Amino acid sequence: MPELPEVEIVCRNLREMIPVKTKIKNWEFYRKDLRYLIPKKDLQKLIGLPLQAISRRAKYILFEFQEFMLISHLGMTGSWRLERKGWDKRTHDHLAFELSGGRWFVYEDARRFGFVEVIRRDDYLKRFQNLGAEPLDRDVDFSGLTEKFSKLSAPIKCALMNQKLLVGVGNIYASEILFKVGVSPLRPCVQIKSQEYDKIWKETRMTLLRSIEKGGSTIENYRNSYGESGNYQNEFFVYGKEGESCHSNCGGKIRSIVQAGRSTYWCPVCQKK
Fold it and tell me: Boundaries of each Formamidopyrimidine-DNA glycosylase catalytic domain copy (predicted)?
């Protein structure tokens, strides 16, 4: 599933591809089996409106118009791309918008866990009121995060993936971040020291920014909007490396367990509980 770096990269691609003030002229459905049904009356509201901005909140892509906002979540395999009129439609193309420049903006999703919805811009804060802090924001309150995390009995790996506390960090990056700071994913948050949290927040920013720089992580399906794979997976230390020798030459072997339904990877020597 795309995490913050991959969604941020797609946003940057789309800003390059679709100029501000581009208008939606028309839309077409090709399949109706996405995660949620998209009301036609909502899509109709976007016809003729000039695009004002493309932004990101957590793992959501936001297409901003004057009164409305088109929200896209990529799920596990969703992607957006530009096509010319009459393109060869793919099996998993679900929705396309005809743009004022003559191109078509196409949403494809093989596993259909993604979704698209339209909201009024006035409802933005209400729609995302339960989302946590943005780890890449310059003014993010990491001391406040430390205070919140320090009261939790949950394992630190699970807490890092809790989108109500901190957004955008998923399974891959949580495992990698904790390895780099030498903190076991099994440790309860309440047992982690303030100095360790400082290291976790610093490494969270560094890891996410490094992944963006390398084009994100392609494990199976992820491609950016130009169809290019990411390269950050080549820098993984623990994710997907169960049974391999630890990169730090500590003599340990990478282990894997399931936490909250997701696979966690760590070195029990470098990351003692």
Answer: 2-114
